[in-house]
Design brief:
The protein is an alpha/beta fold. It has helices at residues 24-51, 59-62, 81-85, 107-115, 133-143, 170-188, 198-205, 261-265; strands spanning 68-72, 78-79, 91-98, 102-103, 120-126, 154-157, 193-196, 214-217, 233-240, 245-246, 252-257. An eight-stranded mixed β-barrel has the order 1-3-5-6-7-8-9-11. It is globular. The N and C termini lie far apart (76 Å).
Length: 270
């Protein structure tokens, strides 16, 4: 319904009366309030799109790389690997172990299922700074088969528990990480890939481990390593949605490889 007409007669000559035109400051305030409301609505819309994975700031840049892959753990639950593999991905990394004694409960099924597809497959280990590196290597070796043609093992170097608020000294991390990397390389015949968040990369990996390919997590911007090193894998999203899995986690991590498929195949275990 249209608003009622203003029955007051405007001044015939000269500027409109206050009844028909608010003063300039009031008009400015109204304009600012409208603009602020538009900004709030726009920010809320973007927040919803990000939360649902519909919009992701790195997607356009990441999809310029033709070789894409996922990483999964028990949180993705039961995976139909034929369905997952049919969605423009080339590789999959599966969580295998953590620390010196933990094995992901879905690893064995995921390992078998992923190998039944055309995907290139690898396993990753979550580093703990609370147990010796040699013991963690033994856990990896006992859990992850050494198969020719698989992707190299990944060691995930990122914070957990209290270490997110109080990161450990660099010496403590290297004391665990160095023997773990040495044992993994000796057993599998390839240097392990090092996965890291920006914070832990800069604290513990920058300007070190030149033989180990870097898998860098950067989900808000394109990857830019502080030591100007080239990344090999880039985790560009933690909130993608693909078909083929049913678990507690509704999202799946997406990763780009810096190169083509033939270059990725050069990393495979001999």
């Amino acid at each position: 319904m249209p608003p009622p007409q203003d029955r007051r007669d405007p001044t015939p000559d000269g500027p409109p009366s206050p009844a028909t035109a608010p003063p300039q400051p009031a008009r400015r305030r109204r304009g600012l309030l409208v603009a602020a409301g538009v900004v709030v609505v726009a920010l809320a819309t973007v927040a919803v799109l990000l939360a649902t994975g519909t919009l992701w700031p790195t997607r356009t840049a990441a999809l310029r790389y033709p070789v894409q892959g996922v990483d999964v753990s028990a949180y993705q639950g039961t995976i139909d690997w034929d369905v997952l593999a049919g969605q423009d991905i080339d590789f999959a990394y599966l969580k295998a172990t953590e620390g010196s004694s933990y094995q992901d409960p879905r690893f064995a099924d995921n390992w078998t299922g992923a190998h039944g597809t055309d995907l290139l497959v690898g396993a990753y280990h979550f580093l703990s700074v609370d147990s010796p590196g040699a013991d963690q290597a033994a856990n990896v070796i006992a859990t992850v088969p050494r198969q020719r043609g698989d992707l190299p093992v990944v060691v995930d170097v990122e914070c957990y528990a209290d270490y997110c608020d109080a990161p450990p000294p660099a010496d403590a991390v290297h004391e665990v990480l160095d023997p773990l990397l040495a044992a993994v390389e000796e057993h599998y015949g390839r240097p392990a890939v090092l996965y890291a968040t920006r914070d832990w990369y800069e604290r513990y990996l920058a300007d070190a481990y030149p033989e180990n390919p870097i898998w860098f997590r950067s989900v808000a911007t394109s990857p830019d390593l502080v030591d100007d090193r080239d990344w090999t894998f880039w985790q560009w999203s933690a909130r993608e949605r693909l078909d083929g899995y049913d678990g507690d986690e509704q999202f799946i991590d997406m990763n780009a490889f810096r190169g083509d498929r033939s270059e990725l195949e050069q990393l495979l275990l001999p």
